[in-house]
């Protein structure tokens, strides 16, 4: 029998140490070290699950580029355009995709809908749930009016059983809901511990690659925003998607943060209805739907999200600080960006913001993080500060530099096209971008060189 020894492993990051430590030297978390029994043979490096690798092309011989056959057409569609785009154009056979998100955000609902849609498109799908019974999933499927012939359900947490069912059914797609409930029985360590997660993911990886099965793994996210425990899962899988949104908001955003088969930053927008998730093909319209015309502190920006332009509303609220230090909060925008823009506005636009509380929000729950949103934020700050309404038909595009200059942004034409389509009348754009524009747009273009000039033009 293999000799056992004790190791301590950090639950937060997976750091291993031979002795117990109060604080993890790797991630700094306190009280996260947990005792793990490790078999000191090489057992853990061997898979306890026998996987068919006969059609794996890796032969140990290097190949020339043109000896390798690759066919992009093998991807298959989930019948959700939003989902396909985030994946980089559909599901790749043999890929391992991790979908992270807060509990209750709708991961199971999304994957159940996708499974049934794939099954209806003649793909064999196996949905494995370690969280709900088969009856519960069936109930949900009925509530969503989903019905599929090629669709198998398995309520199981033991990966050995799951692997043998995969061998029996030979599915094209497998859903594992969730990785935190799965266990490799021969591997010591509690269910949900970092070492179990890692082992379970490694087993699934071998199944995916060896049998050309696309596997989707659900992972719950901890409060800190990491996929529970291990960041290392992100390194092991091909694609990492986050499903996010505020629970009380009907919008859900699917975002690729890592993708070996497509670009990251791609965004898919869904709406949670009582009949399940529905994709939103024209998110700008919905994000702008509740805008109050003539409001102060509100501007519209045309921001890039992956390959798509999204128009969203930026809101600022500046109020005098009652006592103590000024408060600043931002939702959907980076806090650093806000601090910097407040400083630039103070310096270049004659405003005194030190004694003002400042609150920022991007409506619709989107997170924007690209330089071109600066001008819209700057103008919304000025609008709230001077209590002067902005024009509801204006859209703002431009990066602001530290000297108050408005800097050129990428893909100006795509942004203007979207604003034009949605009926905006006027676009404030960087002066340096103005000369690149050869297309005729309905929308009137206002080139600006500095934030001061922009503020003078707007108010
Ligand atoms: P779920 O998919 O179970 O979340 P997760 O798997 O990420 O934990 O989603 C559960 C929530 O979604 C629940 O609060 C109810 C809501 N919901 C709807 O609003 N409409 C629906 O059609 C369904 C199935 C769920
Ligand atoms: Mg779930």
Automatic annotation (TrEMBL):
<feature type="binding site">
    <location>
        <begin position="101"/>
        <end position="108"/>
    </location>
    <ligand>
        <name>ATP</name>
    </ligand>
</feature>
<dbReference type="Pfam" id="PF13541">
    <property type="entry name" value="ChlI"/>
</dbReference>
<dbReference type="InterPro" id="IPR020588">
    <property type="entry name" value="RecA_ATP-bd"/>
</dbReference>
<dbReference type="GO" id="GO:0016787">
    <property type="term" value="F:hydrolase activity"/>
</dbReference>
<dbReference type="InterPro" id="IPR003593">
    <property type="entry name" value="AAA+_ATPase"/>
</dbReference>
<dbReference type="InterPro" id="IPR041166">
    <property type="entry name" value="Rubredoxin_2"/>
</dbReference>
<feature type="domain" description="RecA family profile 1">
    <location>
        <begin position="72"/>
        <end position="221"/>
    </location>
</feature>
<dbReference type="GO" id="GO:0003684">
    <property type="term" value="F:damaged DNA binding"/>
</dbReference>
<keyword id="KW-0479">Metal-binding</keyword>
<dbReference type="InterPro" id="IPR004504">
    <property type="entry name" value="DNA_repair_RadA"/>
</dbReference>
<dbReference type="InterPro" id="IPR020568">
    <property type="entry name" value="Ribosomal_Su5_D2-typ_SF"/>
</dbReference>
<dbReference type="GO" id="GO:0000725">
    <property type="term" value="P:recombinational repair"/>
</dbReference>
<comment type="function">
    <text>Plays a role in repairing double-strand DNA breaks, probably involving stabilizing or processing branched DNA or blocked replication forks.</text>
</comment>
<dbReference type="GO" id="GO:0005524">
    <property type="term" value="F:ATP binding"/>
</dbReference>
<dbReference type="InterPro" id="IPR014721">
    <property type="entry name" value="Ribsml_uS5_D2-typ_fold_subgr"/>
</dbReference>
<comment type="function">
    <text>DNA-dependent ATPase involved in processing of recombination intermediates, plays a role in repairing DNA breaks. Stimulates the branch migration of RecA-mediated strand transfer reactions, allowing the 3' invading strand to extend heteroduplex DNA faster. Binds ssDNA in the presence of ADP but not other nucleotides, has ATPase activity that is stimulated by ssDNA and various branched DNA structures, but inhibited by SSB. Does not have RecA's homology-searching function.</text>
</comment>
<keyword id="KW-0067">ATP-binding</keyword>
<keyword id="KW-0862">Zinc</keyword>
<dbReference type="Pfam" id="PF18073">
    <property type="entry name" value="Zn_ribbon_LapB"/>
</dbReference>
<dbReference type="GO" id="GO:0140664">
    <property type="term" value="F:ATP-dependent DNA damage sensor activity"/>
</dbReference>
<keyword id="KW-0863">Zinc-finger</keyword>
<keyword id="KW-0238">DNA-binding</keyword>
<dbReference type="Pfam" id="PF13481">
    <property type="entry name" value="AAA_25"/>
</dbReference>
<comment type="similarity">
    <text>Belongs to the RecA family. RadA subfamily.</text>
</comment>
<protein>
    <recommendedName>
        <fullName>DNA repair protein RadA</fullName>
    </recommendedName>
</protein>
<keyword id="KW-0378">Hydrolase</keyword>
<keyword id="KW-0234">DNA repair</keyword>
<dbReference type="GO" id="GO:0008270">
    <property type="term" value="F:zinc ion binding"/>
</dbReference>
<feature type="short sequence motif" description="RadA KNRFG motif">
    <location>
        <begin position="258"/>
        <end position="262"/>
    </location>
</feature>
<dbReference type="InterPro" id="IPR027417">
    <property type="entry name" value="P-loop_NTPase"/>
</dbReference>
<keyword id="KW-0346">Stress response</keyword>
<keyword id="KW-0547">Nucleotide-binding</keyword>
<keyword id="KW-0227">DNA damage</keyword>
<dbReference type="GO" id="GO:0005829">
    <property type="term" value="C:cytosol"/>
</dbReference>
<feature type="region of interest" description="Lon-protease-like">
    <location>
        <begin position="357"/>
        <end position="459"/>
    </location>
</feature>
């Amino acid at each position: 029998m293999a000799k056992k020894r004790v190791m301590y492993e950090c639950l937060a990051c997976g750091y291993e140490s031979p002795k117990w430590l109060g604080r993890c030297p790797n991630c700094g978390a306190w009280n996260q070290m947990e005792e793990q029994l490790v078999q000191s043979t090489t057992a853990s490096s061997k898979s306890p699950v026998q996987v068919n690798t006969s059609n794996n092309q890796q032969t140990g011989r290097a190949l020339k580029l043109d000896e390798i056959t690759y066919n992009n057409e093998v991807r298959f569609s989930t019948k959700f355009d939003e989902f396909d785009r985030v994946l980089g154009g559909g599901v790749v056979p043999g890929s391992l995709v991790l979908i992270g998100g807060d509990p209750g955000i709708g991961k199971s609902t999304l994957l159940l809908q996708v499974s049934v849609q794939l099954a209806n498109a003649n793909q064999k799908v196996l949905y494995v749930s370690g969280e709900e019974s088969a009856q519960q999933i069936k109930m949900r499927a009925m509530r969503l009016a989903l019905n599929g012939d090629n669709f198998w359900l398995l309520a199981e947490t033991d990966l050995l059983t799951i692997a043998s069912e995969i061998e029996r059914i030979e599915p094209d797609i497998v859903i594992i809901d969730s990785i935190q409930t799965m266990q490799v029985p021969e591997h010591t360590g509690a269910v949900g511990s970092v070492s179990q997660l890692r082992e379970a993911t490694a087993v699934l990886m071998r199944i995916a690659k060896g049998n050309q099965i696309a596997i989707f793994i659900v992972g719950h996210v901890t409060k800190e925003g990491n996929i529970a425990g291990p960041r290392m899962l992100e390194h092991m899988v091909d694609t990492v998607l986050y499903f996010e949104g505020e629970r009380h908001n009907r919008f859900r955003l699917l975002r690729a943060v890592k993708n070996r088969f497509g670009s990251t930053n791609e965004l898919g927008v869904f709406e949670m209805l009582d009949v399940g998730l529905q994709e939103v093909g024209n998110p700008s319209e919905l994000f702008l739907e509740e805008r109050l015309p003539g409001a102060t502190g509100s501007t519209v920006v045309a921001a890039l999200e992956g390959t798509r332009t999204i128009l969203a509303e930026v809101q600022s609220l500046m109020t005098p600080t009652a006592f103590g230090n000024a408060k600043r909060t931002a939702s959907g925008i980076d806090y650093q960006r806000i601090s910097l823009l407040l400083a630039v506005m103070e310096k270049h636009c004659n405003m005194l913001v030190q004694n003002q509380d400042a609150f920022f929000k991007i409506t619709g729950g989107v997170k924007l993080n690209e330089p071109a949103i600066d001008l819209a934020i700057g103008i919304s700050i000025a609008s709230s500060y001077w209590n002067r309404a902005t024009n509801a038909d204006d859209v703002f595009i431009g990066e602001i530099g530290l000297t108050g200059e408005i800097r050129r942004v990428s893909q100006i034409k795509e942004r203007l096209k979207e604003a034009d389509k949605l009926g905006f009348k006027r676009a404030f754009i960087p002066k340096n971008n103005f000369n690149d524009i050869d297309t005729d747009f309905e929308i009137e273009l206002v080139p600006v060189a500095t934030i001061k000039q922009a503020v003078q033009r707007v108010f």
